[in-house]
Amino acid sequence: MNSKHQFVQLSDGHFIPGLGFGTYKPQEVPNSKTTEATKIAIEAGFRHIDCAYVYQVEEEVGQAVRSKIADGTVKRQDIFYTSKLWCTFHRPELVQSSLERSLKKLHFDYVDLYLIHYPFSMKPGEELFPKDENGKTIYDHVDLCAVWEAMEKCKDAGLAKSIGVSNFNRRQLEMILNKPGLKYKPVCNQVECHIYHNQRKLLDFCKSKNIVLVAYSALGTQREKPWVDQSSPVLLDDPILGALAKKHKRSPALIALRYQLQRGVVVLAQSFKENEIKENIQVFDFELTAEDMKDLDGLNRNYRYLAAEFGADHPNYPFADEY
Ligand SMILES: NC(=O)c1ccc[n+]([C@@H]2O[C@H](COP(=O)([O-])OP(=O)(O)OC[C@H]3O[C@@H](n4cnc5c(N)ncnc54)[C@H](OP(=O)(O)O)[C@@H]3O)[C@@H](O)[C@H]2O)c1
């Protein structure tokens, strides 16, 4: 990593900014909030934007980026934009056209990073969460290596500068890494990662293979009802995080973000609030000591806020393995 923004070099030679702006939003939040917040984030200094087809806000994010290009704040090449392949588009013949759909919504020629969002596949079609008449998810069964080969073609076509995965466990990463004829390895694995689930083993494995770990829900998620158990601990209320915040005269959110940067993890932070967005970019302005890092490591309890059940009855469900 180098100074100020702390860019991390990916195995394919491209650079990813160490802090990214998260754009997932619950359905009841109006899409216009995303346009507004993304513009604020770019003005505040964010240069890495994390999105996905399934978030259904790529039009709004594209609009925000283009307006910040039009007013001279940034150029397209200053922005690192991530999109993700949704589970209903895993069939190899659907992969590139799915990316092209995202690009059309964004009005971009390329994405900086394209990820396989989850390792399990769902029935192809327009429905994002296909269900049968009993309300059960309708899955699909696609060889992950074949999905990966289609991702490689997107990179070769110049539609994605880099390609990677999300929510893969070690076994699934190894399957791709050991694929005969592998052309490009995944540059990153984006997973839930925070003080209560610090992914130490997965992080060590990724580092040993030159795969960057990207942390989502580093602030403890948006605590959205259908996805997060409302009785789960509120991460930003953790007393040790609070004590370190006091010590460094920074907010608990900044301590939680800084923790990831200092362990070589690229970290995402979501917010719709201007004051929080402006605060989060200050993560580059201070340092935690080795002892602080040890205290934060001590909070790990392998607690997962998200996706505990989503995909659980698919053979590629990633979270049944130890890591
Ligand atoms: N690959 C995947 O499967 C996956 C899954 C989940 C998320 N993601 C990505 O990761 C991003 C971030 O994760 P997330 O959406 O779960 O949320 P998060 O970043 O863990 O937490 C967001 C919440 O933290 C609070 N917050 C933010 N900055 C703060 C500050 N400075 N002080 C106090 N509170 C602050 C905000 O709550 P208030 O607004 O209430 O203050 C916000 O709702 C997503 O938006 C998405 O891009 C990817």
Describe the structure.
It is a single chain. By secondary structure, this protein is of the alpha/beta class. The protein has a single domain, classed as NADP-dependent oxidoreductase domain (TIM Barrel). Helix content is about 35%, strand content about 15%. The chain has an eight-stranded parallel beta barrel with strand order 3-4-5-6-9-10-11-12, surrounded by four helices. Helix 3 links the parallel strand 5 and strand 6. Helix 2 crosses helix 3. It is globular, with a radius of gyration of 19 Å. The relative contact order is 0.14. The protein binds NADP nicotinamide-adenine-dinucleotide phosphate (NAP). Belongs to the aldo/keto reductase family. Keywords: NADP, Oxidoreductase. Pfam families: Aldo_ket_red.
